[in-house]
From TrEMBL:
One of its GO terms (biological process) is microtubule-based movement. This is Kinesin-like protein. Belongs to the TRAFAC class myosin-kinesin ATPase superfamily. Kinesin family. The keyword Electron transport does not apply. The keyword Coiled coil applies. Residues 506-565 form a coiled coil. Pfam families: Kinesin. ATP binds at residues 161-168.
């Protein structure tokens, strides 16, 4: 370890006096001598939030008391020069800046190799050299503002500088070296511990401004936010910003970690983890005299309301090799340019120059900062620069900006109001109301017989506990136990010596031991509280258990009911379907049965008709023979009549077997043409009848081939040759069956 310069911190004599860092005189030297040169530490914000709890308490306990800024008309401007980076060392860039040991407020360009140097000397409130760590940076450039915020002044701390110049390192820090934000958080709680006469309400918010869009880093969906004018002149409202009530440092750290994970960072040509957005971490602090038991707690007391905003600006930068980075860079540069313009206008105003318009509205960054820049806040700006000559131009630009800032006038006032809108007031009112309601309930209905009464009381109690836990007092925020020191005592003015040596293993072990002891103590206190709560409970069966049992049995009933109702419909559906199919099946079987019977009947009828047909055909032949015989008889009769041989006329029966004589037909035709033709017609009609009969019969046969179309019923029993012995057909089946 290289020898560190011995630093003495002189305690301020009056509250107004600003702390002043005295450095043991040493020769004018370059800010980054290669011998024992501090190396840049890589920043991983996740580690910072996990590890910083180990360090902040120790750091704070060893800080000298810093007075708050009861009055400050100017911006506190500090210049922090970081150690040279690896790339600057590789390039063998010369150290460009020196700060003489006799005046730690001055910074001037170093003599360069050719022996020339810029003569300009710059003066600021503080020059923080590369060997100064974050704890001392906090003490000199931020702590007074944090303490003032606790006392009711709005305070803004921001870091400005070229990309990779050390803004995030200064504000967030590194695992072994917590930055301004973690130290400020620890300090806020430390101040609460040290103020037994006051009660506090703390809320945290975290937003980023990326490419002119405001994003809420604490809302789960990274909500986009809008700005609007407030009721008071110059007031700017961030609509919908998430503000989380916080009870412990751990809670704030968790929120910060959450926000850091969502924050836009990206690699650039100059910084592997460059902030691509401006980030505002804000604590809103409300405080008032604590209830002392004699007055009605929480009513009509003056409340101090203030905000502490810590802003990590994105770095001004040159053109980079990435397209996306360039778009971001344009937005970043544009908003920083507007900030510069606003600052220079404000500086002109402070010098009584005629300024018509301050362009706050030209960028979201300046709109956000408007209330603070227009004088409503105490401001501390830490401008970070690189020590290397290659970055001289950017560093000069940063120093110019810082110079402008120094001329801006502020007029911050402590805000102390009897304001019913103060949240702490509303919480206290609600606490008082809840307590009164619970007391009333206890008097009116001590046994809490009904379930709804019990539930309501429990809800009221849990709300009451939640509200109480949000109102912080010196006893409720726990203790800050540093090894070897009594816990929770206010900062001792005797402990002025600045002494942090984190490199010693025993110091780290002591830190860890201290942390474990603190946790054990917190748990012991919690056990005591729980025991007391348990004792205070009525001895009757626990209302919560009864209520839960009630709930369980109701749920069981509901579940059983559900099951019943769920099964019922499916069973019914199944039954309906089964019934439907059984009916259908039965109907089909019946149809089958009827059709089979019908087919049998058709077969039988077919057989009967075939038989009848044969009989009819035989009769037909017979009838024809008879007809021939009649015709023959007629011709014989006619012949006999002609010849007068009437006695010779044979009987028809006798003639039937007599063959027709040759040529008899021709002579019959000639002589008895008309008669014969009549008889012929008669014969024809008989034949026709016979044919008709046959036709009808064959139609009927044909119809037997098709189901359901029987065709006209065959003549049965009636007709020319009616025979009473004709078969009786079976009755057809009713068509309706089909
Ligand atoms: N005072 C310091 N001591 C040691 N290391 C430092 C110091 N300042 C910066 N560094 C280192 O320099 C690097 C760049 O710093 P940082 O990221 O803080 O820059 P930045 O200004 O926030 O950049 P950007 O604007 O791109 O976000 C980091 O690796 C950091 O650890």
């Amino acid at each position: 370890m290289p020898d560190r310069p011995k630093i003495k911190v002189k305690a301020p004599t009056t509250p107004e006096a600003r702390p002043r860092v005295l450095v043991k005189p040493k020769a004018v030297s370059g800010l980054g001598s290669s011998n024992g040169r501090p190396r840049p530490l890589p920043i991983d914000t996740k580690d910072v939030w996990t590890n910083e709890a180990n360090h902040t308490a120790y750091v704070l306990e060893n800080l000298e008391p810093t007075p708050s800024l009861a009055k400050s008309e100017r911006v506190l401007v500090s210049i922090r020069v970081r150690p040279p980076s690896e790339s600057e060392l590789r390039l063998d860039s010369q150290i460009a800046w020196v700060t003489p040991a006799y005046d730690l407020r001055m910074i001037k360009p170093a003599v360069v190799r050719d022996g020339t140097r810029d003569k300009k000397e710059w003066f600021f409130d503080r020059i923080i050299d590369p060997e100064t760590d974050n704890a001392r940076t906090y003490a000199t450039a931020a702590r007074a503002h944090v303490l003032s915020a606790m006392e009711g002044f709005n305070a803004v701390i921001f870091a400005y500088g070229q990309t990779a110049s050390g803004k995030t390192f200064t504000l967030t820090g590194a695992p072994q070296s917590p930055g301004i934000i973690p130290l400020a958080i620890a300090d806020l709680f430390q101040q609460i511990r040290a103020s037994p006469d006051r009660e506090f309400l703390l809320r945290a918010s975290y937003l980023e401004l990326y490419n002119e869009t405001i994003i809420d880093l604490l809302s789960p969906d990274g909500r986009e936010l809008t700005l609007s004018e407030g009721r008071r002149k110059g007031e700017v409202i961030i609509n919908g910003l998430t503000e989380c009530g916080v009870r412990t440092e751990d809670e704030v750290r968790r929120l910060l970690r959450m926000g850091e994970e969502r924050r836009k960072v990206g690699g650039t040509d100059w910084n592997a983890r460059s902030s691509r957005s401006h980030c505002v971490f804000r604590m809103t602090i409300e405080s008032r005299t604590a209830a002392d038991g004699t007055r009605t707690p929480g009513r009509d007391k003056a409340t101090r309301i203030s905000t502490l905003s810590i802003i990590d600006l994105a770095g001004s930068e040159k053109h980079t090799s990435s397209k996306e980075r360039n778009v971001e860079g344009r937005h970043i540069n544009q908003s920083l340019l507007t900030l510069k313009l606003v600052i220079s206008k404000l500086a002109d105003m402070a010098s009584n120059r005629d300024v018509k318009h301050v362009p706050y509205r030209d960028s979201k960054l300046t709109r956000l900062l408007q209330p603070s820049l227009s004088g409503d806040a105490l401001i501390s700006v830490i401008c970070t620069i690189s020590p290397a000559a290659i970055n001289m131009a950017e560093s000069n630009s940063t120093l110019n900006f810082a110079q402008g800032l120094k001329r801006v006038m502020l007029s911050a006032q402590r805000k102390e109001v009897v304001d019913p809108e103060a949240l702490i007031q509303q919480y206290q009112n609600e606490i008082a109301d809840l307590k009164a309601q619970l007391r009333e309930k206890e008097v009116d209905n001590p046994s809490m017989s009904s379930k709804s009464d019990r539930v309501k009381s429990q809800e009221m109690e849990s709300r009451l506990n939640e509200l109480k836990s949000l109102i912080l007092t010196s006893s409720s925020v726990g203790t800050l136990a540093v090894p070897g020191t009594p816990a929770a005592r206010p900062l001792s003015p005797a402990k002025l010596k600045y002494h942090v040596d984190m490199a010693r293993p025993e110091a780290i072990l002591r830190e860890q031991l201290h942390e474990v002891e603190m946790r054990a103590q917190e748990q012991a206190e919690e056990i005591e509280l729980l025991k007391a709560a348990l004792d205070a409970r009525p001895k009757e069966p626990n209302a919560k258990i009864l209520e839960l049992q009630d709930e369980v049995s109701q749920l069981r009933m509901i579940a059983a009911d559900y099951e019943r109702h769920l099964r019922e419909p499916s069973r019914k559906v199944k039954q309906d379907v089964e019934r439907e199919w059984t009916d259908k099946h039965k109907r089909l079987e019946e149809k089958m049965r009827v059709k089979s019977a019908y087919a049998l009947r058709l077969d039988e009828n077919c057989r009967l008709l075939t038989d009848e047909n044969k009989v009819l055909a035989a009769r037909c032949n017979d009838a024809e023979t008879k007809l021939q015989a009649v015709i023959q008889w007629i011709s014989v009769t006619l012949e006999s009549e002609e010849e007068g041989e009437y006695d010779e006329v044979p009987t028809l029966t006798a003639l039937s077997s007599v063959p027709f004589p040759n040529g008899a037909r021709e002579s019959l035709d000639a002589d008895f043409g008309p008669k014969v033709s009549r008889l012929g017609k008669l014969s024809m009609s008989m034949r026709g009848s016979n044919r008709d009969l046959q036709n009808e019969f064959s139609k009927f046969r044909g119809s037997l081939g098709g189901v359901g179309s029987l065709g006209p019923a065959p003549p049965r029993g009636g007709g020319l040759f009616r025979d009473d012995s004709a078969p009786t057909l079976l009755a057809p089946v009713d068509d309706d069956v089909f």
